Structures are given as structure tokens and as C-alpha cells.
């Protein structure tokens, strides 16, 4: 009975998200890119990671992480409003430190984007191979990754941003439809658990405060991705990007917190050794239909996040090296694909993802410094001090964080 209800929830949610009024909305299009990136591979690992780290307080920890991410997003939004006009090619020379911090941030983000796109698609390949009963075949996984990278790069090079956004839109709609079913299913399970007194809100017996702090610092990167709005300036106005970045963070943050809260009653059933499939095992306790839906959602998550970061990277490359070399954003998408294909066949992507995670953290710290320098140039001393303190906190977090997902 519950399985049938959840399939109806998936269908109804998909229909609503694909209504012409939603599908064709410029606001939704501008929201989809950051939203796809935020709800990426981390969605599947966050529950077991937080459950292992803080037990029954996982939802509170998730809320804290979302709040910190929102503060960082505020710094990026400030830069869209005030730093970008200073950095435009036709503007007068920007304040020296604004320019230096922004170039350093772009370097860190470009490195992280190429690795994350390749990593997302390598995970997608692993899920696809597992679905057909083939495991531990790196050559096949690399071949699938290469094919998808080539397809995304070619589509972006020929058709540009709008076509990539359509790919994202359908993938995100499918993913959100499954998430809706997931939340409904877990809500029903929780209602039964409350009635049976099976809710456990205790901390883990072996809690290590220092290890927990490092894990929480790492989970901040699970909700990264909102910065992609910063590099869509060639397609959307600053006001729309600010508004849709905020909307994407609200939607994704709400999903993360509610999902973790609803999954709390099942945390005591986590296996001793965690991996990326742990959430699928927990979902099987809720309803038999959820594991295959989660595998489908995982595939859509990897694909949509990869496309979103390709969009962000293409915009980043167009705004930096593109200005000097005369490249379009179309060429930036192709460049991401070429670099990703070279990466997947030459190095161990899973070994590099830890460095990419730290690069994202450093990027956010540098964006806070851009906001600090911009605020100082505008005579906003209190705001500048706040952004400086945020940058220090982020640099510390980058140093101590245990990368997640």
C-alpha cells in the first residue's frame, strides 16, 4: 500500500515540476543550476555521516551547517551586487585586493570544478554498472564517464547554456520527485516509530569532540554549489541571480534538514562500516520501493550536479581566460569536458576529491575576503570586519575538515 502511494507522489511531483508555467519560468531556470549542485552526491551520504558523528542530534547539526552555508552565500551574493561591477572589463581599475582575492578564488574554484564534474560522473558510472550487475571494472566506468563528459561538453559547445539548463531541469525534476516520495515514506515510518517509542535521540557512546568538529566542518561542503550563480552573469541579471541563489539555498537547506530529521529514528540501524550505500539500506526498512527509487535519484543527482558544475565552470572560464583568449562560454563547456576526460584516464579521481573539497573551502574563504575588500572600499567597516572573520573561520575549516562525499 505505502509503495503505491509513494509512486503516486513521484508522479504527481514530476507533473507539477514539469508544468509549462514552472518549466518555462526564468526564475526556475536560474534556480535549477545552484539547486542541482547543492543537492548532489552529498544528499546520499549526509544521513549516515551525521548519524555516525552526532547520533540523534543529526538534524540540529544539519541545521547549523545549512545556516553557515547561508551566511557564506550572503557573502557571495554581496559580491554579485557590489564586487562584480568593480571587476567588469569596462569598469575602472578595481581596488587591488578585490581583484587579487577574486583571481585567487577563481583559480581554486576552476580546479575544484573540473575534479567535481569528473567525480560526479565517475560515481554515476559506478551506479549504472552496479545496476546491471557489473562491479569493480574501472575501464568500463572510465569509458562511461568519458562518453557522458563528451556528450555534455558537445551539447554545451553546440547548443550553449540554455540546452544544458534543460538537461538540468529534467534531471532535477526527477530527483526532487523521488525526494518527495522519500520524505513522505519516512514520515509514515516515523509516525509508527513514535507510537512504538522507538525514537532514539542520544549521542553516540564513543563521541570524540575533535573528530566531530572535523566531520561537521567537512559536511559544509555537502551543501556547496550555490556559488554557481556567481558565474551566470552572461545570462541573468545580478538581481535575479541573487534572488534565485537565495531560493536554491532555502529549498535545498529545507530538504536536507527535514530529510535528516525524518531519518533520525532509523539511525540506530546504521551498519558499523559506513559507505555510500548505507542510506539505501535504511530506506529498505521504510518501504521496499524506496531503494530502486534512491538508485535512480542517485543517478540523477550525479548527472544534474555534473551539468550544474559544468555550467558554473564554463561561465568561470569565459569570465577569466575567455576574456584574454576570446573564448565564448560555449567553449568553456567544451574545455571542462576535455580536461575531465584527460583527468579520468590519467589519475585516481577518488584520491583527488579530497583536494577538490579543500579547494571549495578555500574558494569560499577567498570570496569572503573579496566581500571584505569590497566592503572596505565602500567604507562599510563593520561589514568588512564580519567578512574578514568569516574568511578566517573558513580557512580554519578548510584546514581541519574531513572531506565528505
Task: Explain this structure.
With 405 residues, this protein is mainly α. The protein has one domain (2-400): Amino acid/polyamine transporter I. The protein is 79% helix and 0% strand. The chain is built from 16 helices and no strands. It has helices at 2-17, 20-23, 26-38, 42-54, 58-87, 96-131, 138-159, 161-196, 209-219, 238-263, 278-286, 290-319, 321-325, 329-346, 349-377, 381-400. α8 (161-196) packs parallel to α10, α11 (278-286) crosses α12 (290-319) and α15 (349-377) runs antiparallel to α16 (381-400). The longest helix is centred in the N-terminal third of the chain and has 36 residues, at 96-131. The chain is globular, with a radius of gyration of 21 Å. The protein starts with a helix and ends in a 5-residue tail after the last helix.
Give me some keywords for this one.
single chain, 405 residues, mainly alpha, Amino acid/polyamine transporter I, 16 helices
